[in-house]
Specification:
single chain, eight-stranded mixed beta sheet, two-stranded antiparallel ribbon, 5 helices, 31% strand, globular
């Protein structure tokens, strides 16, 4: 099979943004989807680079991958992805990076403060994390990276097609894979439906299927682009 790319970079799992030494902001992603995608690409003649955040332990290493790279924060994810963007690379951004981080991390564990009127509560001030895919788009243009194919994911609770197509355009993607998430939907071991969008709209719908089968069908689609 003559593929258009020689390397595949797959990102997986959530990132963490620390509030204090024991608390952090993250999300419910397990890393299973990215892990299964990486495993499927091992069946093809490409170098597989697997970059993972704080996945469940069983999704933290892909045997047979050329590299297994671990990151923690969204900025670390951004830097690691950029370092892997070379010519003839397909990027599948299945990770779920935290969109915000605390402006300052407390040096010590934050304690509850009580007054005569009761608990005071806690107000967190957050700032936006970098948009990893948008910065990848800028990086590939500035550094004249050739044949860079970029695929994003859109995990949405509503208006999936609207949000997915907006992200595709804003982030300079070739395709975006959308799925509906929420309580009991999309995360972990549950069956899901994937909808693949290109610049002209819906290209393919897969599922409902277990994530192993979703990954297999998605990879079969991507190796033909």
């Amino acid at each position: 099979m003559n593929l258009k790319f020689k390397r595949v970079v797959i990102t997986s799992g959530p990132t963490r943004e620390w509030i204090d030494p024991v608390r952090y902001i993250s999300n419910a992603s397990s890393g299973k989807m990215g892990y299964e995608i990486a495993k499927c690409f091992l069946l093809y003649p490409v170098d597989v680079i697997y970059i993972h955040g704080n996945t469940l332990e069983r999704y933290a290493n892909v045997p047979g991958a050329k590299q297994n790279l671990e990151v923690e924060t969204t900025m670390q994810l951004r830097d690691t992805v950029l370092s892997q963007m070379l010519d003839d690379t397909l990027l599948v951004m299945a990770a779920a990076p935290a969109d915000f981080r605390p402006i300052m991390m407390a040096e010590h564990k934050i304690k509850k403060e009580r007054t005569s009127e009761g608990s005071k509560g806690l107000l967190l001030e957050l700032e936006e994390n970098p948009d990893v895919l948008k910065q990848v788009d800028e990086y590939t243009k500035e550094n004249h990276i050739k044949n860079s194919i970029r695929v994003g994911f859109a995990a949405e609770t509503n208006d999936l097609e609207k949000h997915a197509r907006e992200k595709l355009t804003r982030k300079g993607l070739h395709y975006i894979v959308g799925n509906v998430v929420g309580h009991g939907k999309g995360f972990g071991e549950v069956e899901s439906i994937l909808r693949i969008f290109g610049p002209s709209g819906l290209v393919k719908e897969i599922g409902p299927l277990p994530k192993e089968e979703l990954a297999k069908s998605l990879v079969q689609f991507l190796v033909t682009v």
